[in-house]
Design a protein that fits this description.
With 393 residues, the chain is an all-alpha fold. The chain has helices at residues 2-31, 33-36, 39-45, 50-82, 88-114, 118-140, 146-172, 183-218, 220-236, 238-256, 260-288, 292-296, 303-310, 312-329, 333-358, 360-392. The longest helix is centred in the middle third of the chain and has 36 residues, at 183-218. It is globular. This is Polysaccharide biosynthesis protein.
Length: 393
């Protein structure tokens, strides 16, 4: 259903309106990890006992409340200085939806994943998708101001649905949140979470920062056409993402038992499963890409070629994401952060070089090249890390 809402809203807003929204959303998603400070991974890790989980969630909520005003100020400054085409008020409201609602959603998903309540996450995803679809239909009925309406609709849906899902999850599991909010606990979370925050920002930057660069160097219509292709890749990757949500907690459990060899075999199994799906997905996208103008309108005709090229990213992500998760489970989160930032640096550099002459095609080349670099480096480091831990054992 999220796919249907995406098709509907992209066709209604057109490349320019969809590009404007995508650039604003990209900026909020890049900043969002600094609000949660690794809450997803830390929640999964701290789910061993109900008391530890309740304390961890209390610290997460109070840390987020402290960091939220800072994130809004940074978003405001970045929007005003770097993305003057955006409506500042609407961007701030979108930021509140992402910084608060989406963070509630991720933490609730982490609680359910750590407790193996995957069906609950699936039901929530269906509810969120239905809400977005209703929102997209509501925007379609509006005669004018559709871009502004979608900003408000998107922020409201994530804010309300994310909070309700968090509330339902904690009530269903009888988690009494309260302890864990002392200043010492918040400082400790900041000390522990900064590597997750920078790592999360780098990961978001891979798929989002290029849209803000593209907006400044090539304009909103180019962002819209490029975002169309990238969004379809993200939708195609959802089954792998669901797989990783299931496997990530088990990686921590294997490391708690010091089973490095078992983790290596488990990682290989995940990668092979993801590869089979990824290859089939790429072939399917090559066949379906010519249908884009029929679904979204002739304004998106060039997105057909963009999608055919960028589809290769599904294969690259299907391999390097499980490796990055394994590095985190093995205690190498700082290493993960460093290599991810290296990939982002390569992505930004290539974008600044290629976009002025190649526009959205330059963004595609930069996207694929930087992800290939990350895959190669991550593969080398996981082998090194495994050998190092086996040697210590």
């Amino acid at each position: 259903m999220q796919t249907f809402s995406f098709i509907l809203i992209a066709s209604e807003l057109g490349p320019s309106g969809f590009g404007t929204f995508s650039a604003a959303l990209a900026l909020t998603l890049v900043l969002a990890p600094f609000v949660e400070m690794g809450a997803y991974a830390i929640t999964v890790r701290d789910s061993k006992t109900p008391h530890l989980l309740a304390t961890s969630l209390g610290t997460t909520l109070k840390t987020t409340s402290v960091l939220l005003p800072v994130a809004i100020l940074v978003l405001t400054a970045a929007s005003y200085l770097a993305l003057k085409e955006l409506n500042l008020i609407l961007t701030i409201l979108l930021g509140l939806g992402v910084f608060v609602g989406m963070r509630f959603m991720y933490v609730a998903q982490a609680v359910n994943a750590s407790l193996s309540k995957f069906s609950r996450n699936a039901v929530f995803d269906m509810g969120l998708s239905l809400a977005l679809l209703i929102g997209a239909f509501s925007v379609k009925l509006i005669g004018s101001g559709k871009v502004d309406a979608w900003f408000l609709m998107y922020a409201s849906i994530y804010g309300v649905v994310g909070f309700l899902f968090f509330l339902f999850t904690t009530r269903a599991e009888r988690i009494r949140i309260g302890a864990g909010g002392s200043w010492n606990a918040i400082v400790e979370r900041l000390r522990e979470g900064w590597t997750f925050a920078f790592g999360g920002m780098a990961q978001s930057a891979y798929s989002e920062l290029d849209k803000t660069i593209l907006l400044n160097l090539a304009g909103a219509p180019a962002v819209g056409r490029y975002s169309m292709a990238v969004r379809l890749i993200q939708v195609s990757y959802m089954p792998i993402n669901a797989l990783l949500n299931v496997t990530f907690p088990k990686m921590f459990r294997l490391m708690d038992s010091n089973e490095v060899g078992a983790l290596s075999r488990y990682l290989l199994k995940i990668i092979l499963t993801a590869l089979v799906y990824s290859v089939l997905c790429v072939l399917t996208l090559q066949v379906l890409a010519p249908l884009l103008p029929n679904l979204f309108g002739e304004e998106y005709a060039s997105s057909t070629h963009l999608l055919k090229l960028i589809a290769l990213a599904v294969v690259l992500q299907g391999v390097y994401w499980p490796i990055l998760d394994a590095l985190t489970a093995m205690g190498f989160q700082k290493l993960r952060m460093i290599i991810t930032f290296g990939g982002v640096a390569a992505n930004v550099t290539l974008n600044l070089i290629l976009i002025p002459s190649m526009k959205e095609y330059g963004a595609v080349v930069s996207y694929l090249a930087s992800q290939l670099i990350l895959l190669v480096v991550a593969s080398v480091l996981i082998v090194w890390s495994t050998k190092r831990m086996v040697g210590k054992g």
